[in-house]
Amino acid sequence: MFENVLVDTERGFFQYRGHQPNYGTLKKVCGYYGIKLALKGTKKKKNWYVHRAIMTEHSGSPIPKSLEVMHTVPDRSMNGINNLALGTKKNNCKEAATRRDYTVAGNTRRETGYSIPVIAKNTKSGKEYSFSSARECAKNLGVSASTICKIIKGRPYYKHSYDALGKQYSFYKKPLSITVP
């Protein structure tokens, strides 16, 4: 499938003549490994995820857009064909969720008491109100807790919200108090 390169689908690497095996370069944004390859009959190289390129080489034809290449092990650096499978986006998400480590998120939530302290600021008067959680803030102001969380996280199009009386509020996380011994 690829021009001028030896592909070892069992171990998941590519090797140009006279060069060391190339397992790809880690892409920091997504955590997958990438490589530049040219399809047979073309000179121009394009960026490929290593797991997709290995599956394409193994199958001998392009992967349909309706399918995704799934890692069957949690380690994304293991791109051998024995660690890969084809599936739908739904299957891929379900498999990834079963392998995901939720302990870090769980520990953080236990430490913060499962809630984020929130400060609501009336944008007109400048008066601030402190709440122990987004849910408590939502109940008191008649605003959606989901909207409050989106504003705190800085999501686009979520800058402020209005209460039932039409007062405009902005929200931010209450700084955690740090005690120095």
Taken together, the total number of domains comes to 2
Strand count: 11
Oligomer state of the chains in this structure? single chain
Q: Percent of residues in beta strands?
A: 15-25%
State the CATH class of the largest domain: Alpha Beta
Shape: elongated
Taking all residues together, what is the mean pLDDT?
86
SSE string:
EEEEEHEEHHEEHHEE
Give a structural overview.
The chain is an alpha+beta fold and 181 residues long. The protein folds into 2 domains: 6-99, Homing Intron 3 (I-Ppo) Encoded Endonuclease, Chain A (Alpha-Beta Complex), CATH 3.90.75; 115-173, Arc Repressor Mutant, subunit A (Orthogonal Bundle), CATH 1.10.10. It has helices spanning 50-59, 89-99, 103-112, 134-141, 145-152, and strands at 6-8, 13-15, 25-26, 33-37, 46-49, 68-71, 84-87, 118-122, 128-131, 161-162, 168-173. α4 crosses α5 (145-152). The longest helix is centred in the middle third of the chain and has 11 residues, at 89-99.
What is the secondary structure topology, with strand pairs?
Elements lengths: L5 E3 L4 E3 L9 E2 L6 E5 L8 E4 H10 L8 E4 L12 E4 L1 H11 L3 H10 L5 E5 L5 E4 L2 H8 L3 H8 L8 E2 L5 E6 L8
Antiparallel strand pairs: 1-2, 3-4, 4-5, 6-7, 8-9, 8-11, 10-11
Helix pairs in contact: 4-5
